Amino acid sequence: MAAKKIIQEWLLTAEKDLKIAKEDIDKLERRQDVSFHCQQSAEKFLKAFIIFKNLEFRPTHDLETLLQICSQQNREFESIKTECKMLSPFYIGTRYPEFDEGLTDEEVKEVLRYAEKIANFVKKTIK
Predict the structure, then answer these.
(1) Dihedral (Cα; 105, 109, 114, 119), 10-degree rounding
(2) Which residues form the HEPN domain (predicted)?
(3) DSSP reduced 3-state for 1
(4) Hey, what's the torsion of the CAs at 21, 27, 32, 38, to 10 degrees?
(5) pLDDT at residue 31, rounded to an integer
(6) Axis-axis angle for helices 31-52, 105-126 (nearest 10)
(7) Which residue, among 85, 96, 13, has the nearest Cα to 48 in the 3D structure?
(8) CA nearest 109: which of 37, 39, 26?
């Protein structure tokens, strides 16, 4: 499969996760799912950039690790460091009920804003 097609597939799946998060943002019972999809969207956008730059990475869900790889290629990625740090725990935390922190309306909206900022940054950088 051509690299360009692979990158497009990563971007498409990242957009799907972001879309699901946006659709479920106002559903109280879906807050954990929203935060998970936000983390997944950010992860996939970062991996799309890594593949775009033909960089190597080991399988990981840790956004800060992926961000370090991206930042080695483009220092501007440091501008989304806070967002990556805040979203990274939602991969594990949402998969295990004992880690459910019960996000408030404002917190879940902030999580979505973090994911959108990462998405917009990566899309702008790849163009």
Answers:
(1) 150
(2) 11-118
(3) coil
(4) 10
(5) 87
(6) 10
(7) 13
(8) 26
Q: What is the pLDDT of residues 9-66, one digit of tens each?
A: 999 999 999 999 999 999 888 888 999 999 999 999 999 999 999 998 888 999 999 9
3-state secondary structure (DSSP) of residue 127: coil
Distance CA 111, CA 122 (A): 17
* Helices 31-52 & 3-24 angle (0-180, nearest 10): 160
d(CA 32, CA 25): 10
Q: 90-121 pLDDT, tens per residue? A: 987 556 665 556 788 899 999 999 999 999 99
Domain range 3-126, CATH architecture: Up-down Bundle (1.20)
Instruction: Please give the backbone phi and psi of residue 89, each rounded to the nearest 5 degrees, phi first.
Output: -65, -15
Residue 93 pLDDT: 58
